[in-house]
Amino acid sequence: MSKRIALVGGGTGGHVTPIVALSRYIREKHPNTELLWIGEETSMEQRFAEQNTLPFRSISSYRIPSMHSFHKMIPALFRMVRGFFEARTILKQFKPDSLFSKWWPGAISVVLAARSLNIPVYIHDSDVIPGASNRLISRFADHIFLGFEEAKSFFPWKETEVVGQILSPDLPILNTKSDAIHFHSPDKTRVLVICGSQGSRTIHQALVDQMSSLGDFEFIIALGTRNEEFQEVFAQFSNVQAFPWLGESLGDVYREADIIISRGSATTLSEAITFGAKVIAIPLPIAAFDHQRANVRVYEAQWLVTGLEESELSKLWELLKSLAGRRIYTAPRFDILEGVKRITEVLMK
């Protein structure tokens, strides 16, 4: 008998791409499984769902205000309650065997709706310091998957399991299309710059300012959704290729890069160290609960990761020079699919 699984997650690439990765793996291994993605209307998650032909339903969205914004609390609570009833209607119609949730503020409404219908709930948190909504909904979860051992202490009341990050099953696949993206200069140190789905204006500008000192390096830069103007700026440098996103070429570029410059996203850092590149991690200083800096600290202690504060970006070119040269590992060091395999195994029971 085929399973039905409802999926929840959205807002940023770090919470959308794991849902895509999980759905692709489930479809590949269990093609009769029915999936439904619940998220926000006209959002990143809806766009990705449509691109991957995943059925999608939306509910009222909201942002959880801080305690210092009491005037925003009442409207948020109103939309949360409305979202609960919308989600309950969707779940009653879909009748899932289980609900899997990544971070998304609206996930609170969906998880509560699932519990009211006795639907088992599973959540995954990527970070060393879990997000507020995941900490809240964890009390209603049947099982909690974690990206880091260090996160266990935030969930003393529930069973947890460390599975690592949810990485795309497409990463190991070579892109043989004619428009595939590759590095072209065998005599230069190859650097991939990938700073999340939105990109980083601050990091991109620092690279522009220091590019005159970086002629011995070749760069491929994933600009993200909010930095399109840098495409024209980077075009003036012969050693730079800049793209809004790398799409199906991401795995190829990971394999070729000697150095990866990223933020402190747990997913990106995990992808980078899996493929064996040296990493310069620049945590976003305004990240909730400072979780990116915590992620970087853990990876610094265990892998080929060097942390650099955003306030020290003027030293980026010096750090790049110190790391110049070919990657140390030439093949993936870990099973890329370890996390997605284990989560799928549990969901399909």
From TrEMBL:
GO biological-process terms attached to the record: carbohydrate derivative biosynthetic process; carbohydrate metabolic process
Name the record gives this protein: UDP-N-acetylglucosamine-N-acetylmuramyl-(Pentapeptide) pyrophosphoryl-undecaprenol N-acetylglucosamine transferase
Record keywords: Glycosyltransferase, Transferase
PANTHER family hit by this protein: GLYCOSYLTRANSFERASE, UDP-N-ACETYLGLUCOSAMINE--N-ACETYLMURAMYL-(PENTAPEPTIDE) PYROPHOSPHORYL-UNDECAPRENOL N-ACETYLGLUCOSAMINE TRANSFERASE 1
Residue ranges occupied by any Glycosyl transferase family 28 C-terminal domain in the UniProt entry: 191-323
A GO molecular-function annotation: hexosyltransferase activity
Pfam family, one: Glyco_tran_28_C
SUPFAM superfamilies: UDP-Glycosyltransferase/glycogen phosphorylase (SSF53756)
Native source species: uncultured bacterium
Positions of the Glycosyltransferase family 28 N-terminal domain: 5-145
